[in-house]
Amino acid sequence: MKIPSSSHVHMLPYLVMLLLLPLLSFSADPDPLQDFCVADQSASSISVNGFPCKPASNVTSDDFFFDGLTKVGDTSNIFGSNVTGGNVLTFPALNTLGISMNRVDFAPGGLNPPHTHPRATESGVVIEGQVLVGFVTTGNVYHYKVLTAGQMFVIPRGLAHFQKNVGVGKAFIITAFNSQLPGAVVLPFTLFGSTPSIPDDVLTRAFQVEEQVVESIKSKFSS
């Protein structure tokens, strides 16, 4: 019988780790360690990565159902769109489960402005209307397509993307995420509406425009 050399034995743990790495990257959130952990959002003094669990004795069937995405969002704003979140903040039963959904409503011509989700990949389906969906890769390549009802899209995690209603009437889409709280960095508000504000000389240099242009844009997003 051939005895494995010591070098092969020493390599075994590294090979096992290489095999496990893809499995560790399937989910954006950690795997749960129990059947459920309905978020106890009243425990505001406790700071954890997520929320503490409501005692199982206090959990009811209603905790596992959510009708928030049935409601049409108010699109009377500067972008003509509205995002209704179905995440752990509005649907506490999603706590530790690594999933969430949004409903996005669009007025005619409405835009869900360029943004990123730092903690999740996004997939979505058009329910009504015609929607232009686009994203830009880290290689600065713009991918886009106009979708109609029933067609799906996917946005890789962390990439800047947008959706715009290009049809004649209203539109809405349902999106899903592999995180209970994917987060959203909405670029116009982040760059021009932060508190405190980003210095003008940073933005004028970044966008190669005059200071008055930056001030004009900031005035539209100041709280």
Per-chain topology:
Elements: H1 6-24, E1 81-86, E2 100-106, E3 111-116, E4 122-128, E5 131-136, E6 142-147, E7 152-155, E8 160-165, E9 171-177, E10 185-186, H2 187-192, H3 200-207, H4 211-221
Antiparallel strand pairs: 1-2, 2-9, 3-8, 3-10, 4-7, 4-9, 5-6, 5-8
Helix pairs in contact: 3-4
Q: What does the model show?
A:
Strand 5 (131-136) and strand 6 (142-147) form a beta hairpin. Helix 3 crosses helix 4 (211-221). The protein is an alpha+beta fold and 223 residues long. The protein is globular, with a radius of gyration of 22 Å. It has helices at 6-24, 187-192, 200-207, 211-221, and strands at residues 81-86, 100-106, 111-116, 122-128, 131-136, 142-147, 152-155, 160-165, 171-177, 185-186. The model has no long low-confidence stretch (mean pLDDT 89).
